[in-house]
Amino acid sequence: MRSRDNAIEVDQLSRVFDVSAPWLNRVLERKPRRYLQAVQDVSFIVRKGTCLALVGESGCGKSTVARLVTELYAPSEGAIVFGPVANGKPLSAQMIFQDPQSSLNPRWRVGEIIAEPIRELKLRDTEAGITGRVADLLGTVGLSPDDAARFPHEFSGGQRQRISIARALATEPEFLVCDEPTSALDVSVQAQILNLMRDLQDRLGLTFLFISHNLAVVRHMADGIAVMYLGRIIEEAATEDLFADPRHPYTRLLLETIPDVVKPNRARKVMGGAPPSPLAPPPGGAFHRRCPLAQDICRRQAPAYTPRSGAGKVACHFADNPHRSLS
Ligand SMILES: Nc1ncnc2c1ncn2[C@@H]1O[C@H](COP(=O)(O)OP(=O)(O)OP(=O)(O)O)[C@@H](O)[C@H]1O
Known about the structure:
Bound molecules: adenosine-5'-triphosphate
Organism: Paenirhodobacter populi
Radius of gyration: 21 Å
Subcellular location: Cell inner membrane
Number of strands: 11
Strand order of the largest sheet: 5-6-7-3-8-9-11-10
Number of helices: 11
CATH architecture: 3-Layer(aba) Sandwich
Mean pLDDT: 90
CATH topology: Rossmann fold
Membrane topology: Peripheral membrane protein
Low-confidence stretches: none
Pfam families: ABC_tran, oligo_HPY
Order of helices and strands: EHEEHEEHHHHEHEHEEHHHEE
Main location: membrane
Distance between the termini: 40 Å
């Protein structure tokens, strides 16, 4: 549904990678081409000024969605529509990566790193204007204007992530895609960066797509959560609803692995097994081989989405009967 309130609408996005062996090997060893479906039929909407989290285990396709949304990859199918033009410029996505070490040029001073997009997009006319904007951005992320003269290696991991946030903000984006922005950081530093991002969201009215493998990290950050499994969204709901009433067994198991969500007298579960390979997806529901509740139908037929409250949805044959014990 198109609305002026939507920052981005993603419609049935799919991405296939060609992972075939090199041509000569294929010919000599008579191997067919191989394709890997990294993302399949992913649809979601992020409303302006809100944060949607994409959550799931390693390999479920989160980063590929992030790269599709920031146009680092082209979709194989589907569409991404950005919201209406704001302040005379089209809305576009900026990306914040997990590892600021590799996204900040080590030979450049911090001031130059942050100034580069300002120069490139000619957002200031004079050197003084650029220097002033860099100083403002450093202040916005809790660093000092003097830090402009230093090099990335002189900073801690958390401070480097602040620098990459300042650089992402330099283009005055309205929409930020954050790919595991805190998972390389110590727990105490993680909290500081999450607080900074929440604060920036409030102050600047930013919209976030926040990628994480950890539901605990996104709980206090996201308005809504979409849980991915083997390239698909298997459940999406407002954050409170998802924590209070998870419907998909995979979401329930993910929640039961978080220490502070597990009730005091219950042991914390460990997610058993591993997701299937996207090169050989199982028939039926993608999760059935690990699902303690799987029935025959799950092995035969992929479940369609059942709507949840709000814009939520869940893909499970037994979504309406979610409270059967998982053990
Ligand atoms: N450029 C690529 N070429 C081939 N396969 C890829 C490529 N990028 C991702 N994949 C595959 O697509 C699937 C989804 O990967 P993706 O990185 O999106 O998952 P993820 O959930 O972000 O995992 P992680 O948290 O480990 O980054 C994986 O099986 C991965 O091996």
